[in-house]
Design brief:
The complex is a heterotrimer.
Chain A lengths: L1 H28 L4 H8 L5 H11 L5 H13 L13 H36 L4 H15 L2 H15 L18 H39 L2 H8 L4 H23 L1 H14 L5 H11 L2 H29 L10
Chain B lengths: L2 E10 L6 E11 L4 E5 L6 H7 L9 E10 L2 E2 L5 H7 L4 E4 L3 H4 L6 H6 L8 H11 L18 H13 L5 E5 L7 H18 L2 E6 L2 H7 L2 E6 L2 E7 H6 L4 H9 L48 E4 L2 E3 L7 H6 L7
Helix pairs in contact in B: 6-7
Chain C lengths: L2 H18 L1 H4 L31 H37 L1 H16 L2 H11 L4 H10 L3 H14 L3 H8 L4 H12 L1 H25 L10 H10 L5 H29 L2
Helix pairs in contact in C: 1-3, 1-12, 3-4, 3-6, 3-7, 3-10, 7-10, 10-11, 10-12, 11-12
The chains are: A mainly alpha, B alpha/beta, C mainly alpha.
């Protein structure tokens, strides 16, 4: 296990270097210097700030030196200071990550809780009415733009029917609440964002689960299980399901960047103080240090998600021997 | 009579219309008897074996006619619940590919435990079975998974799972085909040993005549979904009556007659969707006469329990006088 | 061809016709402000109603379809060119070229695409051309992988050896023989990619960092709809529905092609 993880980590370091090179290139892609752009778009930036950025990026030095210096700072998670409020970028990001991760976590749980049963039951009843109905549902799920869905939910559930709050993660009088009330208040605020965030992934996972299950049901060991005289329940939900679930772990890992990227949309619609909204605000304000910081952190979170998926996969699939393979 | 199959017909679904792949077979197996079912791949022998306990998936096909009497009860008339009490309890199976037939994510112990009868103590019974199939090595290793065993050991585990519930009939579908030759021998010995020890009835399905002749008491040869010859093993070996059987026997390379030509049956087995009129073997038959293409022959007695689905009597002289055609 | 595929083809065809004949179909000038008729609900004179500046929503929607179509096709065209080229190089040459390209793809896939697009937009200006290019250069990875896999299996085939034997150049083999034979899965990916690009563009425009008003795009119309939420349902219904139906159409068509070509 240790060796496997070590190998993975070396692979990660390579990816991480790549991520920093791309991020660094993105900064330098812009025609003109970031400092010029800065002054052009953000009148708040003073001469002093410009010099500070110039110094931060080391813009007077050759490109490879600039990169190495940038890398050194990156290794300390020092992304500089935000133009907007002069606070350290990393501090701003770290404040926002828990909110985003909480929502992602809940939506992943929701996706699994709903998507897996849908996929499994469609596969078991392949070609039947239920399966066809679910196929249509899945296509609709793929096509509905989440921002439109968010607006509709906001309009009806929030504005017209007033069932749930539609903005932020806590009410104004939050500080006066007791612990239990606080939990309820936050949960209420999170319902719509979690639903919206889960919606897109739901279609994908249920579709994937369906094909995974269909594939497994054709395997010889399912015939063996039937030939043993096991109940159909055991054949499907013990022998088939465990095999069909394995690839889902990998798919979850692969869906991390999509989920994080999607956070921009629903967090800005529902005014949720997460990483996506921070990113959106920084883009609108051309707050480069923050933009670069979030970009790198988004990629790092994706890497971690993939690593977690790989390790979990290795842990649940007995065929992968962590000691000698990979 | 332990198992009595009468006029069993099985259809497979295909794009436009169902295709009949088992076209009415009769087969009897007595207690403790080993019957070999021989045929080329795609002749319907595996399907027939699965049909005995209705193991053909609904999406693939169904049994359209016939009777399967097992211990006097018609399997086809049982409810799915009653059927489950026969499957894997009284009739159990061993399939061709042990690796793909074992579930990769459950331990051998767990998969074996599922096959036990309720009255048995899992640990002691599993130890007993592992011993009897030659897997003493893994008795104390409850956490061993299928992929950690060699092909031969996997097949031993499959056989162990099959005999665990003390069945009366064991259906072996090409149990040695996927294994190395040396391992094949060991597995066959194991099967013979178990058969004698447990007085098991066996249906041994294979394409390999030599193996079947080694192990079976009675032999049935299938071609294009029907049995074309059957009878006691000795009779079939010494005096095969159907041209197809003759062709199969002549194809066995022989050490004794080295100079003898390596005989093969020319052509290919017909597709079920385009079976010829009359005798289905007619286009590949070296003894054919015009009359053969008129009507599919009935299975008729030859002598002493041997029956053949051929209108001609093929004497030894005729057999040696008729040249083998290579191109059809 | 199955019914759903035909349905998808119908949707795609319909919106292509609408986009091409926009000036003929639109009853009003999409930019024509009419202060007298602000936020009027759908009626016989304005079948989709008017927006907060009194502009005819139907006409704006019709012109907006041009943006969606253009962004979808050009962005995927760019992604396709990059993906096919890099995938073919990786698959054909193997060795270090393959390693470098595949690592590059792994790295690109680490970035949440939407983040990458936003970051680049923050540096450049959100013009339609920039958006198309940015979506294109951030969404080619899947196609490159598909192309590489196809080429890997194709290049061992006899007709490629035959070409090499008669001294055909690498470029000729790749361009004339390998790529055309490997197009089937890429075509599916292209069709689904158009749907994806349309979704991204409308998302960006919705957030105000895509196509900028007054140029009408479905995304920025929806964004205006958000501003008048509760006072003009038609501002939210029609653009959202159009995006949804268009994306559905391309997805159905893509699945149809997949079933047809890859079975």
């Amino acid at each position: 296990m240790g060796k496997y993880i070590l190998k993975r980590i070396i692979g990660l370091v390579v990816l991480l270097l790549g991520i920093t090179i791309i991020t660094f290139s993105v900064i330098h892609i812009a025609p003109g210097k970031p400092t010029d752009l800065e002054a052009q778009f953000n009148p708040k930036v003073s001469m002093e700030a410009r010099e500070r950025i110039s110094h931060l990026y080391g813009l007077d030095k050759p490109l490879h030196i600039q990169y190495i210096e940038w890398l050194k700072r990156f290794a300390r998670f020092d992304f500089g200071i935000s133009f907007m409020d002069s606070r350290p970028v990393m501090q701003k990001i770290m404040e926002r990550i828990p909110v985003t991760l909480t929502i992602e976590l809940f939506s992943i749980i929701l996706i699994l809780l709903i998507g897996i049963p849908i996929g499994v039951s469609s596969a078991v009843k392949e070609g039947g009415f239920y399966d066809k109905f679910m196929t249509v549902f899945v296509f609709i799920g793929f096509a509905v733009p989440t921002f439109w869905l968010s607006l509709i939910l906001m309009d009806y559930i929030g504005v017209r029917w007033g069932i749930l709050p539609i903005s932020g993660i806590k009410s104004l009088e939050f500080e006066k609440f007791g612990f239990f009330e606080k939990v309820v208040d936050m949960s209420k605020h999170l319902v719509l964002p979690v639903l919206v965030s889960a919606f897109g992934g739901l279609a994908g996972i249920s579709r994937y689960m369906r094909s995974s299950m269909l594939h497994v049901l054709k395997q010889d060991y399912i015939r063996t299980a039937r030939a043993k005289g096991l109940t159909e329940k055991k054949v499907l939900y013990k022998h088939a399901l465990k095999n069909a679930l394995l690839p889902i772990v990998t798919i979850l890992g692969l869906s991390v960047p999509g989920l994080i990227g999607g956070s921009v949309i629903f967090e800005s619609i529902f005014s949720i103080p997460g990483m996506g909204r921070l990113f959106y605000e920084s883009v609108m304000a051309r707050d480069y240090p923050v933009i670069m910081g979030v970009l790198v952190m988004g990629a790092v979170l994706t890497l971690l998600g993939n690593l977690l998926a790989d390790i979990s996969y290795a842990a649940v699939d007995p065929r992968i021997k962590l000691e000698d393979n990979l | 009579m332990l198992l009595h199959i009468k006029n069993l017909k099985i259809n497979y679904k295909s794009d436009n219309r169902p295709v009949e792949v088992v076209r009415g077979i009769d087969l009897d197996i007595d207690k403790g008897e080993c019957v070999g079912l021989i045929g080329e791949s795609g002749c319907g022998k595996t399907t027939a074996g699965l049909g005995i306990t209705k193991l053909i998936p609904e999406r693939k096909g169904n049994i359209s006619a016939g009777e399967i009497l097992f211990e006097g009860r018609d399997v086809l008339k049982l409810t799915s619940e009653e059927l489950r009490c026969i499957r894997g309890k009284k009739i159990s199976y061993v399939f061709q590919e042990p690796f793909s037939s074992l579930n990769p994510v459950f331990t051998i112990y767990e998969q074996m435990r599922e096959s036990l009868e309720e009255k048995d103590n899992p640990d002691s019974r599993i130890a007993e079975i592992l011993k009897s199939v030659g897997l003493e090595k893994i008795i104390d290793r409850k956490n061993i998974y299928p992929h950690e065993l060699s092909g031969g050991m996997q097949q031993r585990a499959m056989i162990g799972m099959a005999i665990a519930p003390r069945p009366n009939l064991l259906v072996l579908d090409e149990p040695t085909t996927a294994l190395d030759v040396t391992v094949q021998r060991q597995i066959l010995d194991l099967i013979m040993e178990l058969k004698n020890k447990m007085s098991l009835a066996i249906l041994f399905i294979s394409h390999d005549l030599r193996i079947v002749f080694n192990i079976a008491d009675k032999v049935a040869i299938m071609y294009a979904g029907k049995i074309i010859e059957c009878g006691p093993k000795e009779k079939i070996v010494s005096s095969p009556a159907h041209p197809y059987t003759i062709g199969l026997i002549d194809s066995i390379p022989s050490l004794k007659h080295r100079k003898k030509l390596f005989n093969a049956i020319g052509g290919r087995a017909p597709l079920f969707s385009e079976l010829p009129e009359g005798c289905k073997f007619y286009p590949r038959c070296r003894f054919r006469i015009d009359k053969c293409s008129e009507k599919e022959p009935e299975l008729k007695d030859v002598s002493g329990g041997q029956a053949s689905r051929c209108i001609r009597t093929i004497s030894a002289e005729l057999r040696s006088a008729t040249p083998i055609k290579w191109n059809y | 061809m199955n019914k759903l595929t035909l349905f998808g083809l119908g949707i795609v065809g319909f919106f292509i016709i609408v986009a091409i004949f926009a000036p003929v179909i639109a009853p009003y000038n999409p930019g024509q402000i009419d202060i007298e008729n602000i936020l009027t609900p759908p009626s016989s004179s304005h079948i989709f109603g008017t927006d907060s500046l009194g502009r005819d929503l139907f006409s704006r929607m019709v012109y907006g379809s041009r943006i969606s179509l253009m962004v979808g096709f050009i962005a995927v065209g760019i992604a396709g060119l990059i993906g096919i080229a890099l995938g073919a190089i990786a698959g054909y040459y193997g060795k270090w070229a393959d390693t470098v390209i595949m690592r590059f793809i792994d790295i690109m896939l680490c970035f949440p695409t939407f983040f990458l697009i936003l970051a680049v937009i923050a540096l450049l200006e959100p013009s339609i051309i920039n958006i198309m290019v940015i979506i294109g250069v951030t969404s080619w990875m899947g196609m490159a992988r598909l192309m590489r896999a196809e080429i890997l299996s194709l290049k061992e085939r006899d007709f490629i050896y035959a070409e090499k034997a008669i001294g055909a150049s690498d470029l000729r083999i790749i361009a004339r023989h390998l790529i055309p034979n490997a197009m089937a899965p890429v075509l599916v990916s292209v069709t689904l990619g158009i749907a994806g690009a349309i979704l991204v563009e409308s998302g960006l425009s919705f957030l105000g960092i895509g196509v900028q008003p007054p140029t009408p795009s479905w995304g920025n119309i929806l964004s205006e709809g958000k501003a008048v939420m509760g006072a003009g349902w038609w501002m939210m219904l029609f653009p959202g529905l159009s995006i949804f139906i268009t994306v559905l159409g391309y997805n159905l068509l893509g699945e149809g092609i997949r079933e047809k070509l890859l079975k």
